[in-house]
Amino acid sequence: MSAPLTLEGFRADLAEFLYQQPDEVDLEENPIDAGLDSLRIVTLLERWRETGAQVTFVELAECTSFAQWWQLLSAQPRGADHADA
What we know:
Radius of gyration: 12 Å
Number of strands: 0
Helix content: 40-55%
Strand content: under 5%
Shape: globular
């Protein structure tokens, strides 16, 4: 498992898929309106799962902004034992 996801890492991951700089990512923007399709979302989700995130595609799809994504991801317990996940 990689290091826990930080806000800076989250923004950097989004920026990579949006072809932007991390400081250009508008966290209030809708992910679909920003240009992310389901394949890119799944790819990001898999990357974040490697950091220990236990968020599902459906949970992300229900969100209307990157800020809501970050709320879900940052609410994950840090350092919890997820061996059976």
